[in-house]
């Protein structure tokens, strides 16, 4: 897996540090838009939770993307970069009233997670003119290891509830409607992604026939996976879009229904273009070889949370023989603080720089302060090869700022 930078280029950056490749992000954004331009009015709402940094959001805004927000601060991030109205999708669960109030104030598309939220929103701020419903197919579909089994998930309305929800919204005077689902995460199986389109299109047709509601848009969700391992193959976005369009034609256009198609991909857009850079502090021989680095799972939780794989490059040793097998670990007081377990690597020396690939989504965003660890800085690598600091590293003063002695 190739890096967009060299050891010399990043020599002066502190570690641990996150680096994002702007050129790569823009190229992927353009590929996604091109593939789904087959659908008139297509829009991608970048999942802010994947990488909530205003510099990144501005890059994606300039590519025509909206934002998918799930909290008050995420809504405020979208507002601060100049997005408003239906450029913002608000998809949340077990939501506070003030968050719905802010979403409505911004004119965001409110995507309801549960049928009871109709009354909740009505009481909190009044129902908006456009409302979307999140669908959970339950036993009708399988999930995957990250998002879980839909039938066991806390997200979305059951099949029967969706019909009742639209009927109730219609009765309450809502005139405009959308539909949404999110049933997998990091899915590389193209057939599953295509089938999600078929599922939603058939549901949209059934809602139209049974409730008399015509959907303005169908949000296919996100969940498009990326190849974390060198041997994995990236999704063919054009094929996926083409196959989904075939289902769109046969189910919806055939019945004179023409909803816009939306996506809310996060990982697909920024995931492959982020890198966590960390320095080797210790090389130890215990019952197995241990490589201790200055990053921890407080910087990148995914390996501990999901058993996720992240490829590792040792800068300056890209072409050396993989001569050792070792665990790559951080310094937390937890035994699962490991980025790699029994990984084949070149010979490692103190001070070596390791790069963890594909950390541009759900990396820094999932950071935490356990053991008093401080969140790292983030840098954006510009297309001309220069680096811009887009978030400073936390300091000890930051850590103590919310404490009262």
Number of strands: 17
What spatial form do the alpha-carbon principal axes imply? globular
Distance between the termini: 48 Å
Helix content: 25-40%
Low-confidence stretches: none
Oligomer: single chain
**Strand residues, percent:** 15-25%
- Number of continuous helical runs: 11
Give the H and E element order.
Answer: EHEHEHEHEHEHEHEHEHEEHEEEEEEH
The radius of gyration over CA amounts to 23 Å
Counting helices, strands and paired strands, the structural category is: alpha/beta
Mean pLDDT: 95
Largest sheet: 9 strands, mixed
Q: Which characteristics define this entry?
A:
405 residues, alpha/beta, nine-stranded mixed sheet, eight-stranded parallel barrel, 28% helix, globular
Please write out the topology.
Layout: E1 17-21, H1 22-36, E2 43-47, H2 54-62, E3 66-69, H3 72-80, E4 88-91, H4 97-106, E5 109-112, H5 117-124, E6 130-135, H6 159-171, E7 176-181, H7 190-211, E8 217-219, H8 237-251, E9 260-263, H9 267-270, E10 274-285, E11 289-293, H10 302-306, E12 312-314, E13 324-329, E14 338-345, E15 353-356, E16 377-381, E17 387-391, H11 396-400
Parallel strand pairs: 1-16, 2-3, 2-9, 3-4, 4-5, 5-6, 6-7, 7-8, 8-9, 11-13
Antiparallel strand pairs: 1-10, 10-11, 10-15, 12-15, 13-14, 16-17
Helix pairs in contact: 1-8, 7-8
Summarize the structure.
28% of the residues lie in helices and 22% in strands. The chain has 405 residues and is of the alpha/beta class. The mean pLDDT is 95.
């Amino acid at each position: 897996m190739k890096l967009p930078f060299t050891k010399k280029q990043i020599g002066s950056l502190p570690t641990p540090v996150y680096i994002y490749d702007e050129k790569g992000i823009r190229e992927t954004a353009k590929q996604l838009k091109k593939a789904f331009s087959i659908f008139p009015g297509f829009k991608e709402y970048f999942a802010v939770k994947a990488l909530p940094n205003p510099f990144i959001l501005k890059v994606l805004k300039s590519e025509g993307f909206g934002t998918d927000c799930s909290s008050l601060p995420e809504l405020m991030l979208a507002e601060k970069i100049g997005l408003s109205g239906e450029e913002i999708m608000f998809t949340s669960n077990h939501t506070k009233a003030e968050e719905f109030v802010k979403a409505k104030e911004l004119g965001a598309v409110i995507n309801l997670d549960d049928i009871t939220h109709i009354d909740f929103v009505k009481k909190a701020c009044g129902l908006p003119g456009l409302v979307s419903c999140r669908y959970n197919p339950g036993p009708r579909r399988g999930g995957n290891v990250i998002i879980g089994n839909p039938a066991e998930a806390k997200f979305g309305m059951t099949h029967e509830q969706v019909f009742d929800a639209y009927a109730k919204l219609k009765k309450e005077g809502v005139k405009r409607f959308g539909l949404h689902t999110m049933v997998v995460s990091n899915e590389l199986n193209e057939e599953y992604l295509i089938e999600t389109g078929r599922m939603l299109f058939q549901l949209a047709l059934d809602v139209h026939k049974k409730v008399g509601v015509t959907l303005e848009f169908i949000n296919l969700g996100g969940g498009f996976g990326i190849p974390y391992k060198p041997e994995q193959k990236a999704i063919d976005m054009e094929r996926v879009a083409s196959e989904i369009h075939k289902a769109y034609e046969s189910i919806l256009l055939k019945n004179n229904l023409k909803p816009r198609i939306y996506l809310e991909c996060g990982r697909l857009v920024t995931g492959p273009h982020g890198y966590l850079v960390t320095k080797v502090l210790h090389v130890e021989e215990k019952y197995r070889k241990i490589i201790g680095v200055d990053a921890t799972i407080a910087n990148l939780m995914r390996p501990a949370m999901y058993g996720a794989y992240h490829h590792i490059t040792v800068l300056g040793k890209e072409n050396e023989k993989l001569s050792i097998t070792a665990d790559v670990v951080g310094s937390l007081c937890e035994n699962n603080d490991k980025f790699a377990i029994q990984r084949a690597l070149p010979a490692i020396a103190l001070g070596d720089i390791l790069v963890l690939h594909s950390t541009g989504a759900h990396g820094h965003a999932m950071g935490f302060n356990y053991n008093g660890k401080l969140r790292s800085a983030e840098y954006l690598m510009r297309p001309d090869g220069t680096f811009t600091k887009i978030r400073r590293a936390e300091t000890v003063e930051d850590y103590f700022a919310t404490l009262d002695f």
